[in-house]
Design brief:
single chain, mainly alpha, 3 domains, 3-stranded antiparallel β-sheet, two-stranded antiparallel sheet, 16 helices, 68% helix, globular
């Protein structure tokens, strides 16, 4: 069911983009469908296996699919950790990039195509051109992005700062559709340490989505569309299925998605800190499994202390839930409205470039963003505070 919804959502995004930008929705939806699980798997049929680990792609022999430009974007890993060919990695973002290029190319074709032939030839030329662009440019780029993300995830999770970064960017991996490709890392961690220490860190991304959804629900009006969307997506979110919340609630509104990434950053930091400074290496007792609250039953530590593992994981979930709700409420508050205005003024002003760089570095730390915004708000008069309006939640 979830795969079906993902297929429909990606195609609908392509259709809607074309409607907004004055292009043919049918062509755009067709190109977007390349990045859906069902059509992407069909495209993988272009690779014909030859021998044990070789493949033939349009007459080109590929011996190492994990590093070859043509195949890297299609590489997937089974439960055994062995590389194979599957649907493209790029997911929704890849579909949006491809549709954007499609719209631009279509408009250029229509300028030169005679009216009598436009209806037939333009779709054919545009779709053929975009197949080439996808196969030889967008999908390979997404594949190498996946390879880079995999390296980061495999090498940064053992310290609190690395863990926070990984938790913070994991939702982007979900949006790009590459999050299922970390199975080799999971298997390697189980083999080397006895636990999958990366999984609970990444699970904070889903927990942050749940926390943000709770905050949005609290702020939204009774009977609103947003409340209905959250009601249908939050239970799967608690159970570790984050796509309904991402695609139905947070990503379309952008700000809640960004807030989710920030909240998951702190959840990952907590797990990394407990491991690095507390000596408790939390992990899942299997290469992969359910997420969210359901994953609690599979938590343990590297020395086999199940009780401690469960306690640390539940504590991380609660912290991330609370921070997600608190941060999104803050993001729509009067403090945020005033803070955004003041921040824009800093960058538009004529102050020294060095000060602007210092402000930027401060904002990147997140804490350095909250503190100035709160201070600036507290300096306002009572009348100024009353005149400010929080951002509408819808």
């Amino acid at each position: 069911m979830l795969t079906l919804l993902t297929n429909v959502f990606i195609i609908a995004v392509g259709w809607r983009m074309a409607e907004e930008w004055g292009s043919n929705p049918g062509i755009a939806a067709t190109i977007a469908a390349i990045y859906t699980p069902f059509a992407g798997a069909a495209m993988a049929g272009l690779f014909i296996q030859q021998g044990v680990d070789g493949y033939n792609f349009l007459g080109i022999h590929i011996s190492n699919i994990e590093s070859n430009w043509l195949s890297v974007g299609f590489v997937t890993y089974g439960t055994s950790g062995i590389a194979g060919i599957g649907a493209p990695h790029a997911g929704l973002i890849g579909a949006m990039m491809a549709v954007g290029i499609t719209i631009a190319i279509e408009k250029q074709f229509r300028k030169i195509m005679p009216g009598a032939l436009d209806t037939i030839l333009t779709p054919v030329f545009v779709i053929f051109t975009m197949l080439m662009v996808n196969l030889f440019l967008i999908i390979p780029l997404a594949g190498y992005m996946f390879t880079g993300i995999t390296w980061l995830f495999n090498n940064l999770y053992t310290n609190p700062f690395g863990a926070s970064v990984l938790a913070g960017i994991f939702l982007f991996a979900v949006v790009f559709g590459v999050h299922q490709g970390f199975l080799p890392i999971y298997f390697a961690l189980i083999e080397n340490t006895g636990v999958n220490g990366l999984f609970p860190i990444l699970a904070m991304g889903g927990a942050a989505q749940v926390g943000v959804a709770i905050g949005l629900y609290m702020m939204s009006e009774k009977g609103s569309l947003l409340r209905k969307q959250i009601s249908g997506a939050i239970i799967p979110g608690f159970l570790g299925i984050g796509e309904p919340l991402i695609y139905g609630v947070t990503l379309p509104r952008i700000k809640p998605f960004v807030v989710s990434c920030i909240a998951s950053f702190f959840g990952g930091f907590f797990i990394g800190a407990v491991s690095f400074w507390g000596g408790v290496q939390l992990g899942m007792n299997a290469p992969t499994g359910p997420g969210g609250l359901v994953a609690t039953i599979m938590m343990t530590t590297a020395d086999g202390n199940v009780l401690v593992g469960v306690f640390v994981y539940l504590a991380a979930l609660v912290i991330t839930y609370v921070l997600g709700a608190a941060f999104v409420i803050f993001a729509y508050s009067k403090i945020s409205t005033n803070g955004v205005t003041k921040t824009k003024q800093i960058y538009k002003s004529d102050i020294n470039i060095g000060l602007k760089i210092c402000w930027t570095l401060s904002f990147i730390t997140i804490i350095g963003l909250f503190v100035p915004w709160i201070v600036w708000y507290n300096k306002l008069s009572t009348q100024q505070k009353q005149e400010l309006k929080g951002q509408k939640v819808e």
